[in-house]
Amino acid sequence: MGKFKYTEENEKEFQRIAKKYPKIDAMMLPALWLVQEQEGWVSPDAMVFVADKLGKTPIQVYEFATFYTMFNLKPIGTYHIELCKTLSCMVMGAPELKKFIKDTLGIGPGETSADGKFHFSEVECQGACGGAPMIALNNQYHENMSIEKLEKIIKECK
Amino acid sequence: MAVELVKIVSKNFDIPDSHKLEVALKNGRYESIDKAFSMQPDEITEEVCKSGLRGKGGGGAACGPKWKLMPPIDERPRYLIVNGDESEPGTFKDRQIFQYDPHLLIEGIICSSYAIGAHDAYIYIRGEYKWFIDRLNEAIDEAYEAGIIGEKVMNKYDYRIDITVHRGGGAYICGEKSALIESIEGKRGHPRLKPHGKECEWFYGMPATVNNVETISSVPNIVLNGYESYTKWGTERAPGTMLFAMSGPVKNPGVYELQYGEKMLDVINDIGGGMRDGLKLKAVIPGGASCPILTAEEVEKAQLDYESMWDIGSTLGTGGMMIIPEGTSMVEVAKNLIEFYHHESCGQCTPCREGTGWIDKTIKKILEGNGSDADLDTIIDVCGTMNGKTICVFAPAVKDIIQSIVEKYRHEFVEYFKN
């Protein structure tokens, strides 16, 4: 048995959501989201916990969590910058933003800054093409991004 | 004639606080419910059939006949699943409904669930749309609190409806309806093998219908005002309207509700404001990244309806027009899109899993200056190997976009290895 446990509040939330589905299996995504919201990432311990809760094996949870790109399988720091790289964002200036992040924070895609504060991901289309280029900062969308705007956002996080 | 905006689904989008129940009720939301419950479920389905409403998620299949695929009502539970995964590059229309008129979607779910005999509806939304998920959940909570949904619809109709929002985890393939169901069922989002005959979808072995968010949101107007109110818009074979999205360097990128059949160039110029900063139009991917690319010359002939787009060798898809300006390397465009598809292939079928990787590597080789004519032939050949040989239409979509870019802009690829 691993060390991970939901907080009391999350345990209640898990039980509340579980009632909405005909089978407990459907709780795989909601259960992992609750883990990630609580811890910032999904640890092997948490996978064992979810497996126990859903009557699955840990490997089934692992194969599920690794299929979906939004689950962090290691700690990613306080601020997660996700830059959309797909076509409309590319045409509207995403490559310049990527360069700016590298120059300012010293991190490329998949890397975390030395102080552990920023993690940078280059991601596929986020459905914000009309406001391209865009970044998401801890899930919050920031559209019509420019180097000036990004500089301000990074400064506010520091 | 200038292109006219039509306000059916988008009617309330510009009203301040349109997402709140109080404002929504003042502006016509839930007016269709009394009419719906004065009808038999089959009558609603017939009305939707006559309206010619087509699926807005990319496929364009007729909505009413899809509902008819549900088996006759028996003791088994039946489900409505609303597809809000919206992960096709260039597509960002359903989020407008979540943001500006979530109660329209709830109203549509009530009408549609009653028509197909479902009591539980699940709305699957891509995980990245956290903000929109929160907003939709607030609206659903309001609807429960007001007794609009729950044990009785509108506090008076003896029909239970429960709505649950299911947050995805970041996988494009989960927009494919059977992959979406697999995902809710707690599995990897692998599309299912399709049956030979047409039949409904199956959720935990029970009958289910999957419809796109915008499709469901188009139902209340048809129920309330009759199918004729819908067929007066659009073309004979594609009646009604669609939320068309425009992205790239136009002056006014965004989402606009238009009737089917408008000329693409007029829409780009009249509604999109034309190209910005003196740029010239080079190409358009018409309906999300999986539709064959149109050259500037073809854009002049393009009309925004399914049949017209097929006539010029492309598809309407989700109506998300991606505008590409002169000065953009089409090899870079191809690289960008194949990277997307390589990353997002679910990996279940070998032609798709290996083919996307193979094309990705070959285009990178060309960009590095190490390509040859034989590489271009290889790309076309691999496209042929992928097309029609996989469980879902992901691989054919890759073939459509990549082959069209290589064929129409072959000279640009050749320049990379000649210089």
Any overview of this molecule?
- The complex is a heterodimer of chains A (158) and B (419).
- Chain A is elongated.
- In chain A, strand 2 and strand 3 (118-123) form a beta hairpin.
- The mean pLDDT of chain A is 96.
- Chain A has 158 residues and is an alpha+beta fold.
- Chain A has seven helices and five strands.
- Chain B is 43% helix and 13% strand.
- Chain B is built from 18 helices and ten strands.
- Chain B has helices at 21-26, 32-37, 41-51, 63-67, 94-100, 102-116, 130-145, 177-184, 213-225, 227-231, 264-271, 296-299, 306-311, 330-344, 350-367, 373-386, 394-408, 410-418, and strands at residues 79-84, 120-125, 162-167, 201-203, 206-212, 241-247, 254-259, 281-285, 294-295, 320-325.
- In chain B, the strands form two sheets. In chain B, strands 3-2-1-5-4 form a five-stranded mixed β-sheet, with helices on both faces. A five-stranded mixed β-sheet of chain B has the order 7-6-10-8-9.
- In chain B, strand 4 and strand 5 (206-212) form a beta hairpin.
- In chain B, helix 14 packs antiparallel against helix 17.
- Chain B is globular and about 75 Å long.
- The mean pLDDT of chain B is 97.
- The chains are: A alpha+beta (158), B alpha/beta (419).
- Chains A and B meet through helix 2, helix 4 and helix 5 of A and strand 3, strand 6, strand 10 and helix 14 of B.
Order of neighbouring strands in the sheet with most strands of chain B? 3-2-1-5-4
Please give the number of β-strands of chain B: 10
Per DSSP, the total helix count of chain B is 18
Q: What integer is the average pLDDT of chain A?
A: 96
Largest sheet of chain A: 5 strands, mixed
Most extensive chain contact? A-B, 43 and 59 residues
In angstroms, what separates the terminal alpha carbons of chain B?
A: 46 Å
- Structural class designation of chain A: alpha+beta
Global Rg of chain A: 18 Å
| Strand line-up of the largest beta sheet of chain A | 2-3-1-4-5
Measured as a percent range, the helix fraction of chain B is 40-55%
Give the amount of beta strand of chain A, in percent: 5-15%
